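Chain A, query sequence.
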Amino acid sequence: MSDTPFEPSRRSRREARAAVDAPTTDRIIGVDDGDAPTEQTRSSRAETETRPGSRAVERPPGSFFGTWKPLVAAAAALVVAVVVGLIVTVAFDGAAGRSAGSVLASIVVGGTGLGLMARTRPAGFFRVRGLDVLWGLVLGAIMPFIAGIGAVSRGWPAFEALSLRWLILGVAAPFLVVMMLTFFAIGFVYPAALAYASTRFSPTIARVISGAVSAVAFAVIPIVFAGNVSGMPFALPVGLGIAASVFVALSRRFWGPLLMGLVFTSVWVMLSIAGFVLA
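Chain A, predicted structure.
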């Protein structure tokens, strides 16, 4: 037999060297087995962190978007606008006073909406889409006839006169009122209500609630100052507000409802002028 001592294979020597040189897991982490988190502890911690309601919604200090504050501001603006508008009606008589009051009231709420829209608008809310333009034109053209079913009026509407006073209060004023109400109810109230309702309800229910809130916000001033120079029954702007709220809830964009309101008012004014001429 050979007197050469047994020499381990190269693989055995590599494994032995790796066992001596490689640091253990405990040496790397620096804890013993009792301090190491178990699989059950990790799973319970993950469940706690992902459980609904286990962690409050984080908002920056002084947050405005997603809270009740925009809705309170909208309600306060409506109250102030109605009071100011009713005061203005005292200076005029009848339909002219109600027209002037509605104009001033809509400017108050519209200014509030314009001032706060930038702080409540969701992403892509002011994006322009061709489909929104098409639907705005179509719905704006047919809405006066659809909403007019509930107005209990027969024949074509007609201005009582076409003097300068009637042109300002009966032609220009309705455009201003509809535009300001759209900025307020659709551009400000709807996104504010949606941001608040989304923290408490599912997306579909939140949009339904927000649409109802914006439709009410749109309808308050036309109802209070009904019977103005334009002769538009309050059923028409109320129907317009409902249609605009549904429009913005489906499209999630602003310009379509605004275009619909402007076309709606244009159709009404043209019908009123035609009714005056043909009378």
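The two ends are 134 Å apart (CA to CA). Residues 23-62 have pLDDT under 50 and may be disordered.
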